[in-house]
Amino acid sequence: MLAFKTKQRTLPSYLGKEAQCTPQKAAELSKRILRVIVKDMRPLSLVEGEAFIDMIEYACPGFKCPSRWWFTKQLEKAYQRVLDDLKGNLKKSAEKRPVSGDFAYWTDVGVYIKSDSGASVMEQEP
């Protein structure tokens, strides 16, 4: 007579495909969602979509996606950091060698900064 050995079930097999989402993985996933919104120019309402929520729950069970208001605050913080860095870099450049004439500078977040004979202007991307 053949005897079959049974294997003890693991905790993930009771919970589904994966165990619950860890706080570290949740933080990284939130950053990556923000990156998708910025790089692909998606609306903030993306995070409230039924299909998006379903996909995220499948990819990382137990993950609670932050609201669009949280992502708005993160975008504002990132914008302010980039703007402060840009101002600091322009100030350092001006101290090293004064700028004479006109110049233009594009930031990686789509802000166009133009100087016409010493007058600085911030504009939307043309």
How would you summarize this macromolecular structure in one to three sentences?
With 126 residues, the protein is of the alpha+beta class. Helices cover 48% and strands 13% of the residues. The N and C termini lie far apart (81 Å).
Shape by Cα distribution:
elongated
> How far apart lie the N and C ends?
81 Å
Uncertain regions spanning at least 5 consecutive residues: 115-126
What portion of residues belong to β-strands? Answer: 5-15%
Order of adjacent strands in the largest pleated sheet: 1-2-3
Structural class: alpha+beta
Alpha-carbon Rg, integer: 24 Å
Main beta sheet: strand number and arrangement? 3 strands, antiparallel
Mean pLDDT: 76
Number of contiguous helices: 4
Q: What order do the helices and strands follow? A: HHHHEEE
Structure in words:
- The chain is of the alpha+beta class.
- The protein has a domain at 17-98.
- Helices cover 48% and strands 13% of the residues.
- It has helices at 11-15, 23-39, 50-59, 68-96; strands at 103-106, 111-116, 119-124.
- It has a 3-stranded antiparallel sheet with strand order 1-2-3, with no helix packed on it.
- Strand 1 and strand 2 (111-116) form a beta hairpin.
- The longest helix is centred in the middle third of the chain and has 29 residues, at 68-96.
- The chain is elongated and about 85 Å long.
- The model is unreliable at 115-126 (pLDDT under 50).
